Structures
1.
Amino acid sequence: MRIGVLTGGGDCPGLNAVIRAAVRKGIFHYGDEFVGFIEGWRGVVEDKTMPLTIDSVSGILQLGGTILRTSRTNPRKTEGAIDKCLATIARNKLDALITIGGDDTQGVANALIEKGVPCVGVPKTIDNDLSGTDVCFGFDTAVGIATEAIDRLHSTAEAHNRVIVCEVMGRDAGWIALYSGIAGGADAILVPEKPIDLDAVCAIVKERHARGKYFSIIVVAEGAKLPAKDAQATYGGKVDDFGHARLSGIGNVVADEIEKRTGFETRAVNLGHTQRGGTPSAYDRMLATRYGTAAIDLVHAKKFGRLVVLRGTEITDIPLKDAIAKTRTVGDELLALGAGLQPILK
Ligand code: F6P
């Protein structure tokens, strides 16, 4: 078969491992040919391609980013762009298209599926909030990076008697904040799922300092909101090509409030894109490899319009349109885990 592959949306560690696995299994096992689309849906709209061969996917397993590069181009938002995608797919004589991306990328795939394009999706988001799958590749790496950063913040915070607020990724769900916050022993974890309770955060900080502690560490997801504002902190009102606001700054807002209310010197650190860059963890390489091989197997089983997912420890597949229906947020049990470790939050 002749199969197209693209990576869309924000990058995350493990994209290259998915590409490599799909291409190797496709060529070695099924005798496939591959066409890589450059920069996500932009490459399909503009018919910009590169060949994907055993040679071109050699040595990429451990590399961050994506050899196909990526973009947030959304053909559904530009007049005539979906027709251009259909023309590119026909011109390249594709029998199938593997779309590696999150809900926006898969939303475009779904629009093409409805027009008869044989697509198979692979779920990707560093935020780990795609519904239908238990884990997205890249999440484990991001949690590892954030946890290491929180470990490092402990010693400098203690040396200076400071509170440090560490802002991590997580637009609509606090998976990275919760996992890295618990693993890193943060004193409070603030997530988009619950409005920020500054009174509770300040009470935790004061109680620790009254107990003779010299520092506190607070982890906040970029999408967490203050109840008074009911709006996420954004950077200059800018939006990306998918139309999402550029989030940034809640860490500074929380830090300023803590310093004002408690009198303790407080600093904010935003980990930003360091969480998405660099080499994937062994767990993510494994998961990405399972996703890539499962995607090519689905193509050959002609199970189109499906998304490969992880349920428990098993790889399976679900209708792709179900995965884009809603965000998978952190449940109450895990949220209670963080709160249960603090004396203030009953
Ligand atoms: O959607 C994943 C994500 O990493 C979010 O956590 C973040 O808000 C956004 O992408 C930032 O992406 P970029 O700066 O690449 O536009």
2.
Amino acid sequence: MKTPFLLLGLGLTTLPVLAQQNDPEPEPMRPGMSEYWNPKPAVVTPGVTMEAPSDAIILFNGQNLDEWTTDKGTPAQWKVEGNVMTIDKSKGDILTKRKFNSFQLHIEWRIPKDIQGTSQARGNSGVYLQDMYEVQVLDSYENPTYVNGQAGSVYKQTPPLVNAMRKPGEWNVYDIIYTAPVFKEDGTYLYHPYVTVLHNGVLVQNHTEIQGTTEYIGFPKVKKHGAGPIRLQSHGDPSAPISFRNIWIREL
Ligand code: MG
């Protein structure tokens, strides 16, 4: 029975000392306490105007379609002329040979000045992220359509916040920041994909949660996937084909 008294005795004498050692007066905050200096963000040289920064992968610089292929794995054959590529609707979609996870993508596109047609049949194309999720490309200059299918929409899901469309014949710019999803074992999302889109420098998708695939008919489907290419849509609408230029991407 001596032990508990011994411990009690020890406790009475030592605990205040221990308390003093474990709970020192907090040091007053200094500026340096909330600063960290490493790891340092990599230094990159920003492009002048819309030019690619130094760490970008150039997907199209006006010279050739070497970075692009088709669903059949054959060379992409859209027309390249004067630093611009133009859809050849007889050749179908093109997609990058490279596959990507999360990224920042810059792409410029132009609706022909003499475009005809209405609603979805007027300059329809699209930028597919990881070959799964379409950011719509369309002539949305004075061309009503369903709003979750106009330019800047996550197709059939989320309309753009505003309509920042330039006139046919002028160049539009998309800057797309995409966060790839993470899947559970059962093939459902642990984390959804997210997308932020600037259309001509104007925010049109603000960290938008993507619900699933961007289906023409029906609602989004969740399909497990990994890294994927960027796909550019050759849409079957009868209007004149649209053009692209200055396409670059930064992996995140
Ligand atoms: Mg489309």
3.
Amino acid sequence: MALSVITIPCLSDNYAFILRCTDTGITAVVDAPEATPILAELKKQQWGLNLILITHHHSDHIAGIDELRAVTGAKVIGANLDKHRLPFLNTAVEEGDIISVGNSNAEVINTSGHTMGHISFVFNNDHKVFSGDSLMALGCGRIFEGTPEIMWDTLKKFIALPHNTMVYSGHEYTANNAKFALNIDPTNKLLVERAQNIETLRIKGKSTIPSMLELEMATNPFLRSSTPSFKVLFGMNSSSDLEVFTKVRTLKDNFKS
Ligand code: ZN
Ligand code: FE
């Protein structure tokens, strides 16, 4: 049983991911910022498209869906909570639901905060999570509709996943996120090393996505909000994890790189 993934750069800094069950040939895409590059890759591989999985309603994640559906006949899966502002859904899902891409199953988790109704797809057996604009490489999505409390609850769901899970997030924001992370956590050796790797990848025009959750746990400032040695950096030793997360989110919102 195996799920292969092809990363498709879209628009200026978005990603779509084409998933393929190598046993059955069933193919899905996670998010569709625009149809053209996704259709081009499907054509190149000579694959059809069976499913479109949506993380959230922002146009840079859904604008290509109607065209993809029209050309391929793919069925669309998205959050029941967001049904009113998503393209037509063949299947509306909620937290705890299981969807399948051929022989690979994904659990739907509610990862609200960036938007209310944002979902992520956890392929437990394949050690992959598609996190849209909730957990991002060295970052987390800006809180547009939720509260810091809701976003922190979301991040805790990621922290609870096996740490060998690969995180596929929806944007190439990593280099900028690294500048912020280094600014507040400059003595973190793994972070310094990671920032160098990111720079090298970007110079070569390569994607920094996916990243392993284990590395996010050690370097992503938002996930480090519960780490005592991280709290000390802000003199917040006795503050709650949520208070530290809220502080980091506020600092990032005001950070000028
Ligand atoms: Zn978004
Ligand atoms: Fe986005």
